[in-house]
Amino acid sequence: AIFWNTRTRDEDWVRRYQDVASRYEGSNCVFAVPASNLGFSIVCFCCASLGAISLLIARRRLVHGELGGPRSAKVATSVVLVCYWAGYVVTVSWRALRYEDASSSEELGVV
Q1: Rounded distance, CA 2 to CA 29, Å?
Q2: For the whole model, what pTM was predicted?
Q3: What is the reported pLDDT for 79?
């Protein structure tokens, strides 16, 4: 908050955040985060979280615990959780960087 209170508005900031600039008076900037991709990010995060929780529930039933168990189960669980994380990062990054310029086949490939 201190950083943004010490900065003065310039034309670039006003052009980038027109809706925020119209609501706040004064010569100082305010911290603004556009929510353009937030909903998609939340849906992706919830899907990955549900997959991870389902995996932990399956481990509890099959291996009788979330941690430990046979080496193969530990490695498989680790690989799946890292894939959930990487898939989330790639999908959300794609949406933020390429979504408006993407072709139909690219969108289908990502989804």
Answers
A1: 10
A2: 0.67
A3: 96
